[in-house]
Design brief:
Strand content: under 5%
Order of helices and strands: HHHH
Number of helices: 4
Shape: globular
Oligomer: single chain
Largest sheet: none
Helix content: 40-55%
Distance between the termini: 29 Å
Length: 93
């Protein structure tokens, strides 16, 4: 809720209230991530030319093709970056 008591309910109809159904509107999420990365770069005075969201694009493409959740994929990519040999795959019941 922002701006004087206004509520938005768009998320309830677009992807059924599940925030991780990125495959439904993957282009929107890619645009969101690019904008968020740009804002973070500006805030922390980072070099915008070094902005690389290729890993996120690869993850979104996989999610779009397989119509699955991105949570496990994000955890896998984080584990890879940290040189971990294991990570947890969430199971939603």
């Amino acid at each position: 809720m922002y701006g004087g008591g206004y509520y938005t309910t768009e998320y309830l109809t677009i992807d059924g209230g599940y925030p991780d159904m990125i495959y439904i509107r993957h282009d929107w999420y890619l645009c969101y991530v690019e904008n968020l990365a740009w804002l973070i770069s500006i805030k922390f005075k980072l070099d915008l030319n070094k902005l690389d969201i290729s890993v996120f694009k690869k993850m979104v493409n996989f999610v779009s093709k397989n119509k699955c959740s991105m949570k496990g994929i994000i955890d896998f990519e984080i584990a890879k970056q940290r040189n971990k040999k294991e990570f947890y795959i969430p199971v939603f019941l």
